[in-house]
Automatic annotation (TrEMBL):
Annotated spans, Disordered: 74-100
InterPro entries: FecR, FecR_N, Ferrdict_sens_TM
Any matching Pfam family: FecR
Species of origin: Coralloluteibacterium thermophilum
Transmembrane segments: none
Domain spans labelled FecR protein: 128-219
Domain called FecR N-terminal: residue spans: 14-54
Biased composition (Pro residues): 86-96
Protein name (database record): FecR family protein
Length: 348
């Protein structure tokens, strides 16, 4: 079973930060030196992450020194005080033994790197976006990615120097991901959708999550649960859609054209051989007037069609024309159940 690369990289970076913190605390014991050497040489990725933190530490240290010395601040009363006596030449710094200077330099580097590691994990910034019921919302994230939120959608975005994570709490969103080295991951319904440079759509439903790819590629990962082992569930390219059941992580894939995938952005609902329960759930996301499906037989009726999400009258008329359904149309609700003669009959 494949492993999640984001989890592996996060563990490696945490280990690199741990070793920097140990250097800051003081000299490592011989056993710690040996363990650090084994970890550093176990994988080229370990060395890259360690050097990346060291580089970041250097940049942070420079910024902190500039702030401390006030290089950006103008001198007080500049231009009003004139020196009448030439400044004395600065005394040359006292020489220090080379070993002492080397030890002090290493301590300073370790302390700065440890500070950088601490700031690295304290830095994450989070943003929450929500679209009102019945309205769409388009936002640009701080990393320049664009997100289109469907009606009644809420998501939380967390950015740090190593990754970009989106938690889709409810609803549906389409992501146009800005190209960066940091991975872009969407978590929804217990799944992890990892972007491989693309534009894609994630739709969180009551019993399943749907992922559609317009451009590029995404991978759908299962982090692991009581019912399913962790691993790669789907690798989707442009024009592919996957439906992943929440209960057992069963995956159903199919191809779709871009127009069908983006119909919801135009206020349209396209359903292809879908149960009435799923169609009603999608329509209820956009309307205050709700569709209530009253029994399992009616909920399982398979439908195909296209309509405006706000046109509930036409949809109610269509349902009322079905001989297997009994429909009661009200001002606030459309109740749909099986026709009396069809109660308990198998779904169509």
């Amino acid at each position: 079973m494949s492993r999640d690369p984001d989890h592996d990289r996060e563990a490696t970076t945490r280990a690199a930060a741990h070793w920097h913190a140990l250097h800051r605390e003081g000299a490592l014991s011989p056993a710690q030196h040996a363990e650090f050497a084994r970890w550093l040489t176990a994988s080229p990725r370990h060395l890259r992450e360690y050097l990346a933190i060291s580089h970041l530490a250097g940049e942070l240290g420079l910024a902190l020194r500039e702030a401390a010395t006030g290089h950006d601040a103008a001198p007080a009363q500049a231009g009003k005080v004139v020196s009448l006596r030439p400044p004395r030449p600065a005394a040359p710094p006292a020489s220090r033994p080379p070993r002492r200077r080397l030890r002090q330099g290493l301590r300073a580097l370790a302390a700065t790197a440890a500070c950088a590691a601490a700031l690295l994990w304290a830095w994450p910034r989070s943003y929450t976006y929500a679209s009102p019921h019945g309205e769409h919302l388009a936002v640009q994230l701080p990393d320049r990615s664009r997100v289109h939120l469907d009606s009644g959608t809420e998501l939380r975005v967390t950015l740090d120097p190593l990754r970009r994570k989106v938690e889709l709490r409810r609803g549906r969103a389409s992501f146009e991901v800005a190209e960066q080295r940091r991975p872009f991951v969407v978590e929804a319904g217990g799944l992890r959708v990892r972007d491989i440079g693309t534009t894609f759509d994630v739709d969180l439903r009551a019993h399943e999550t749907r992922i559609a790819v317009l451009e590029g590629r995404v991978q759908v990962w299962n982090p692991g649960s009581a019912d399913a082992a962790p691993g790669l569930l789907a690798d989707l390219g442009a024009g592919q859609r996957a439906r992943v059941a929440h209960a057992d992580r069963q995956v159903e894939t199919r191809t779709e054209d871009a127009g069908t995938m983006t119909a919801w952005m135009r206020g349209e609902l396209v359903f292809l051989d879908e149960p009435l329960a799923d169609v009603a759930e999608a329509l209820n996301r956009h309307n205050t007037r709700r569709i209530a499906v009253e029994d399992a037989s009616a909920a399982a009726l398979r439908l195909s069609g296209r309509l405006q999400v706000s046109d509930l009258d036409s949809f109610g008329d269509f349902l009322a024309a079905q001989p297997t359904l009994h429909v009661v149309v009200g001002e606030d609700e459309i109740r749909v159940g099986s026709a009396p003669a069809q109660a308990g009959a198998p779904s169509l």
